[in-house]
Amino acid sequence: MSTYLYGLVATSHPARVDGLTGVGAPPAQVRTLVAGDIVAIVSDAPEGLRAKRRDVLAHEDVLEKLCAQGATLPMRFGVVGEDDDAVVEEVSGRSEEYTDLLTRLTGQVEINVKATHHEDEVLRQVLLDDSDLRAYHERIQSDGGGSHEERIAFGEKVANAVEQRAAQDADVLIGHLSRLADRRHIGPPVGETFLNASFLVGAEEIQHFEEAVEALREQVDWLLDLRVRGPLPPYSFTEIHQPEPEIARPG
């Protein structure tokens, strides 16, 4: 039976997994494997594992429950070992590396912040801020909407202005929130989201961080939407080489 790996914790971690279930249908019972100074959090791996929403959420739920108990090194979704012995051998061989990283992550969590502009407001704002763009818009409007080429040119100018505004707003948000974080990781934009940033925050700073986000939200709610997720396991700050997932992606 293949073994599914959720994450790693130190032997000092409570690792309370009784009654906790993970991936699979029916959900597999989560259990632990001791590998030197590290405990691997695992379950039996279902056959034909796919990145289905239910299984992805189950993977995240296991890690979030472990993170609430102490420092947890999360694995990406879909990491599967040949069997329990193979997982123990792999983890034991890198026990020192994992222990060092868990020590650095003790007492810290990840908080993810995403920001999306309200489309009508950001368009209005870039026109207000750029007199040349506003004059160009007024000219083609007075000329019956302008030629096809002029409309295309105007659209490109607006898109560039919105992109510049997004970069400026992202810098401001990151600057404010970075003061309350030990580290930050800027991820790629997702859809209309212009900011996708993760912050490594000490447990004692979580409330202050959340209050800072709320204060920012009150200031910029007219222009953009701020969404916060966390506390989370430190997905973005696990600087280790992880085994490649062994999953079949939905077609």
TrEMBL record:
* Superkingdom field: Bacteria
For this UniProt record, give its keywords in alphabetical order, as a comma-separated list.
Answer: Gas vesicle
GO BP annotations, alphabetical order: gas vesicle organization
Q: Which InterPro entries match?
A: GvpL/GvpF
Which terms in the GO cellular component ontology are assigned?
A: gas vesicle
Ranges annotated as spanning the membrane = none
What is the annotated localization of this protein? Gas vesicle
Major location category of this protein: other
Task: Tell me its family.
Answer: Belongs to the gas vesicle GvpF/GvpL family.
Protein name from the UniProt record: Gas vesicle protein
Q: What is the lineage of its organism?
A: Bacteria, Bacillati, Actinomycetota, Actinomycetes, Pseudonocardiales
